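Folds abound. Consider this:
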Amino acid sequence: MNDHGKPRPPPPEDCPLERYLHVVSGAWVPRIVWFLRFGPRRYGDLRRDLKSISGKVLTEKLRALESDGLVVRRVIDSSPPQVEYSLSPRGRAFDPVFDAMVKVSAELERLDAIEVSDGATETGRR
């Protein structure tokens, strides 16, 4: 039973949340996807956006995202050749998830501010 007196559903054998949670979690991946949400980015742009990421790690993460079908890598025919990364339609499917996470984050910050304010008020009363 859950807190509301209703029986809990059995966990699914193939949890739909776990299917992609591992893909967009971990170090750097959410930030990479975040920047790619705003349009195609060149490798050097991503390095500047993600100031402390090493080139090796960025390359590994981009390759993994490409392998998972979330990112598209496009070679631009120029001299010297350049590479551009963008979200695939599968990667774009996470847009509502990121939007919801931004809203939840803002709400949690608002609640934290209220708690701090209430704590300061409580302390002032004592």
